[in-house]
Amino acid sequence: MAIKTLGIDLAKNTFHLIGMDTKGNVVMKKQLTRKKLEPFIANVPPCLIGMEACGGSNYWARLFASYGHEVKLMNPQYVKPYVKTNKNDFNDAEAICEAVQRPTMRFVAPKSIEQQDIQALHRVRQRVISERTALANQIRGLLSEYGHIIPQGIRYVHKYLPLLLSDEENQNLSALGRKLLNNLYEELRQLDKRVKELDAEIEAICKASEICQRLIQVPGVGPLTATALVAAVGDAKEFENGRQMSAYFGLVPGQHSSGGKTVLGRMSKRGDRYLRTLLIHGARAATTNMARRPEWLKGVIARAGKYKAYVALANKNARVLWALLAKEQDYQPAF
Question: How many CB atoms are closer than 10 A to CB 34?
């Protein structure tokens, strides 16, 4: 039994494996528990292993590669067309085994531990910011019940809430209400402190990385975007050109063409939503602070408005970032 290609349907505890030979015939069909998977793979002669890019896939990819296997990860949506008849775990594993052999398949580069650490840092920061926003909104909502309206924005909570709490003559706030709001404000300050600590860690990683220092030269790209991009993309050479990486972020128009007629729609919004948001917000900041805007950007603003210009600049920046990563060049401003 010579296994040339191995497809693994990943799970938490029970894994399903399908092995094929050089002719594409199924020669092995197994169901293994989590404890038995690693010893089994360690005893299999080096082969091509295909898996879907999902939770835990990067760990397994690094582990299987250490045993001499060639491991490739795929987006689940590219595997789905290869599922035959009904869906079950063995059919999914067979579809993975079929898809990984396709020469035109697009693969996801496995992430290193360092990349996963940076991504985890960004995810924790994103969660803390969400909690801070929810807490600020709760404070504003509670104050409105006491007849105090604070404008939207965390900075206004920091500005007005201490004044309301220090005003002892205010009859609208009872002792219990004042104590409750004071506790919420202390919690908000702790979340602010936590966000600053996470930002400091991200900036330290950015300063220590030569690649990130090259990326932040692009207008609209800061430590957040640079570190998140390096963690998510890794090797930019996985993309053939800058447009492919921009499409990976969902910054290109959706296409529905047929019969030689090209129809382009709205921005596709595919891929990594977090990175797309960072690129667009960075483009907004760069466009606002540009002392001298390029002519093409002025034209987009005149034709389509500033908001579409932000997306256009984010799209351009994504392509520039691909060139900096893939070609290992320094940023050269065009204006």
Answer: 12
